[in-house]
Amino acid sequence: MKKIGLIALTTLFPLSLMAQEPSAQEARGLAKTFVEKLQPELKAGMKNGGPVNAIGVCHSKAPQIAHDLAKSSGWNVNRVSLKPRGASATPDSWETAVMEKFNAQLASGIDVKTIEFSEIVSHNGQQEFRYMKAIPTGEVCLKCHGTDVAAPVKEAIAKFYPQDQATGYQMGQIRGAFSFSKAM
Ligand code: HEC
């Protein structure tokens, strides 16, 4: 009886999934989901009142999406930047080094869509799988992250983020990165 139970279980859930080792592939999926959840919110926010309105949307939705994804996946889910805007976007030293490497990779001609990095690190005596993926600056991003942000948009940003550093970007530059981690 016990044996049959185990066979049924391994048929339903392959051993690789049962072990639940975090992987870059799983992290890549999380990044994709993050984009798929945030992009429509941003688009709708822009449509319903332009970038000034959409800042409020990003301010409330982006952290909410990160929180929900973390809860459903068991990963720590964040976005960071060398020039942060959001409250949790300030990188630690590992993240800073990885993003500096990403910028060098972009400069050497590597396609930004493929720029990612993962590593197993030791954190407080615990093995942790860490993953980062570059987030490129696209055209629509320039309204709130570009070199020529309109005055009312600047004001709205300053209201929520008095310490904002996340402007001055050009299209194609790396705006920041997804940063995910999970205990092994
Ligand atoms: C309507 C203005 C607006 C637009 C357009 C916009 N952003 Fe942002 N962005 C924000 C705000 C506001 C935050 C801070 C969100 C928070 O509080 O977590 C942010 C945060 C980020 C972060 C997290 C790191 C950080 O510095 O806080 C990344 C990465 C990012 N944006 C990338 C992009 C990209 C890529 C695009 C284009 C596809 C884009 N943004 C378009 C307003 C905008």
Structural class by sheet pairing and helices: alpha+beta
Bound molecules: heme C
The count of DSSP E runs of length 2 or more, i.e. the number of strands, is: 4
**Quaternary state of the chains:** single chain
Write the element-wise H/E pattern from the N-terminal end onward. HHHHEHEEHHE
Radius of gyration: 19 Å
Helix content: 40-55%
Low-confidence spans: none
- How many individual helices? 7
- Which band does the percent of strand residues land in? 15-25%
Q: Quick check: average pLDDT?
A: 92
Outline type: globular
- Terminal CA distance reads 32 Å
Number of domains: 1
* Main sheet strand line-up: 1-4-3-2
Task: Note the main sheet.
Answer: 4 strands, antiparallel
Keywords: Signal
Organism: Thiosulfativibrio zosterae
Protein name: Cytochrome c
InterPro entries: Tll0287-like_dom
Please explain how this structure is put together.
With 184 residues, this protein is of the alpha+beta class. 51% of the residues lie in helices and 18% in strands. The protein is built from seven helices and four strands. The protein has helices at residues 2-12, 15-19, 24-47, 50-73, 93-107, 142-145, 151-160; strands spanning 76-80, 116-123, 126-136, 174-183. A hairpin with a 2-residue loop joins strand 2 and strand 3. The two termini are 32 Å apart. The model has no long low-confidence stretch (mean pLDDT 92). The structure holds heme C. Heme C binds at residues 42, 51, 54-55, 58-59, 62-63, 79, 81, 84-86, 89, 135, 137-138, 140-141, 143-145, 166, 175-176. Heme C (HEC) binds at residues 42, 51, 54-55, 58-59, 62-63, 79, 81, 84-86, 89, 135, 137-138, 140-141, 143-145, 166, 175-176.
